[in-house]
Design brief:
- By secondary structure, the protein is of the alpha/beta class.
- It has two domains: about 160 residues, NAD(P)-binding Rossmann-like Domain (Rossmann fold, 3-Layer(aba) Sandwich); about 140 residues, N-(1-d-carboxylethyl)-l-norvaline Dehydrogenase, domain 2 (Orthogonal Bundle), CATH 1.10.1040.
- Helix content is about 55%, strand content about 15%.
- It has a six-stranded parallel beta sheet, sandwiched between helices. The chain has a three-stranded mixed beta sheet with strand order 7-8-9.
- Helix 6 links the parallel strand 5 and strand 6.
- Helix 1 packs parallel to helix 7 and helix 13 packs across helix 14.
- The relative contact order is 0.10.
- The structure holds NADP nicotinamide-adenine-dinucleotide phosphate (NAP).
- The site of NADP nicotinamide-adenine-dinucleotide phosphate has 27 residues, from helix 4, strand 7 and helix 7.
Length: about 300
């Protein structure tokens, strides 16, 4: 009999991950707060549960990927939540990017039910989720990690054990502090160049010929130049992760001057109503401040017409 998974959270990331588990041979029961998002999985052969508890009941693995700490706490500890139904011996894997402190609390509560917990945040975004090529950062007991590895291999290509409960999340927050800053400073540089009349294509050729080249900005640049901010990783979640990194930095007495400044740029873009766009839309806030657009030449007025 194939192993069973109760999968909760069918957003940008969860939808393709759940589909990969189904095609990877797991017996899948899914739950999503907005019920219609479960339709494609139902059509592909998954069972659909009426609550997180129903999804978790009798499952070998309970898998969650929802928006933030409050959402994970609600689906785990709320009424009809996972911890009402998880069975002893099961493994609860949470891939949401949330507070390491909240995650450690959930690990304790899960242990109280005789089950095991892993924080397993990911990087690789929508493409990585669709292709089963995510990178995982794992916190928890190593033997639980080893038991969960066959399942995690269906979802990802790299699985990095980081240490005790919360360590996966601590690594993830550090990684997103780096990622958000690379994109933001790339945007600042391109706005500066555009204001001086240097074409984005010219600037890109220069960056790609220099040590400033990054795989991340190679990927994001074509979308930025077209003004296509379809969300792969929504800006509101990048801002959330910078807030979480900032909390972690405060708790540990670690100064993060660049990430703190960058956090406020994402906060400003979010306050402008751009939270549901991809986080590369942070450039539009910088463009508005400078009075210039970093787009293909024909959509970019000459410097003399720019504010
Ligand atoms: P998303 O598309 O916005 O999906 C969020 C999911 O959380 C939806 O299924 C939503 O349900 C559910 N949810 C939110 N609040 C809930 C609540 N109170 N109770 C139950 N369900 C709730 O987000 P996503 O991009 O998939 O990201 C999910 C997590 O993965 C986030 O923590 C994010 O930081 C992390 N992550 C995302 C990416 C990426 O590239 N997108 C990459 C790495 C990590 P509804 O459908 O009902 O709203």
């Amino acid at each position: 009999m194939p192993l069973s998974v109760g999968f909760i959270g069918l957003g940008i990331m969860g939808q393709p991950m759940a589909m990969n588990l189904l095609t990877g041979g797991y017996r899948l029961t899914v739950y999503n707060r907005s019920a219609q998002k479960a339709d494609p999985l139902r059509a592909a052969g998954a069972k659909v549960a009426a609550s997180p508890a129903d999804a978790a009941r009798d499952a070998d693995f309970v898998y969650t990927i929802v928006s933030d700490s409050a959402a994970v706490e609600e689906i785990a500890t709320g009424k009809n939540g996972i911890l009402e139904a998880i069975r002893p011996g099961a493994i609860f894997i949470d891939s949401s990017t949330i507070s390491p402190t909240v995650s450690r609390k959930l690990a304790c509560l899960t242990a109280g039910k005789g089950a095991s917990f892993l924080d397993a945040p990911v990087t690789g975004s929508k493409h990585g989720a669709e292709k089963g090529e995510l990178t995982f950062m794992i916190g928890g007991n190593r033997d639980t990690f080893e038991r969960a590895l066959p399942l995690l291999k269906v979802l990802g290509k790299k699985h990095i054990y980081c240490g005790a409960h919360g360590a996966g999340l601590s690594a993830k927050l550090a990684q997103n502090a780096i990622q958000s800053t690379i994109v933001e400073i790339f945007c600042e540089g391109f706005v500066l160049a555009a204001k001086a009349g240097v074409k984005p294509e010219t600037m890109m050729e220069i960056v790609q010929s220099s040590m400033a080249r990054a795989a991340l900005t190679d990927f994001k640049a074509p979308f930025i130049f077209k003004g296509d901010f379809t969300p792969y990783f929504p800006l509101k979640w990048m801002h959330k992760d910078l807030e979480l990194a900032s909390e972690a930095a405060y708790a540990q007495g670690v100064p993060m001057p660049a990430a703190s400044a960058v956090k406020e740029v994402y906060a400003a873009a979010k306050a402008q109503g751009k939270g549901d766009l991809d986080y590369a839309a942070v450039i539009t806030f910088l463009e508005e401040l400078a009075g210039v657009k970093v787009r293909t030449l024909d959509s970019n007025p000459p410097p003399s017409e720019q504010r």
